[in-house]
Amino acid sequence: MEIKTLTLGNIAVNCYLLLSETAAVVIDPGFESEAALDFLKNAQNKERLIILTHAHYDHIGYALELSRQTDTKIAIGKFDNEALLNSYVNLAVMFHTELEPFLADLLLKDGDGFAVGDIEFKVIHTPGHTVGSVSLLVDNVLFSGDTLFKESIGRTDFLGGSFGEIEKSVKKLYTLPEDTIVMAGHGENTTIGYEKNYNPYIRG
Ligand SMILES: [Zn+2]
After folding, report:
1. pLDDT one-digit tens code per residue, 133-171
2. CB 59 within 8 A of CB 28
3. CA of 133 to the centre of ligand 1 (A)
4. Are 66 and 50 in contact (CB under 8 A)?
5. What is the percent of the chain with per-residue pLDDT over 70, rounded to a whole number?
6. CATH classification number, 2-198, choose in 3.60.15.10, 2.40.30.10, 3.30.559.70, 3.90.960.10
7. Pairing of strands 113-116, 106-108
8. 128 CA to centre of ligand 1 in angstroms
9. Is-above-0.70 flag for pTM?
């Protein structure tokens, strides 16, 4: 499997493109991206999925359009699905815009395993930044959304945020092997081992 990182929008969200022989997956298409569109258009013979780590505008803003243009289903953590309907809750309004309401096709729950072609995902519910945030594990790579960043964690001051919850979530992620690569929603990659030692907010 190949992973490509696109950094999109003025808030620099990381959108990840996962490609294998049989699968093409886009994680967090927050802003319009010709690269993400071409990626799915060129993969019409593969299994495809758009996965949203959580329902904040900068991670979901291009999902509906991308889904429509490439006939690709959308997945999100079940407790964030309804936020896709509300431009206040999903922060579109804070970004001075509105989002056409939509709902995901597939709802992810803690502990779920699912496959897109030959790429196998494990879902870890990691609330705290939002109620329905999920992190996704593929082999030794964790897509952590806005839960865990290099030397930081997600904000907990938005609706549904909770420091106590994100602390529990990050500690759950810290039980993964230390060499697990963390590909976060913003900023550089890191590893679980590095964050356990150097994350200034939550130590392992
Ligand atoms: Zn967010």
Report:
1. 999 999 999 999 999 999 999 999 999 999 999 999 999
2. yes
3. 9
4. yes
5. 100
6. 3.60.15.10
7. unpaired
8. 10
9. yes
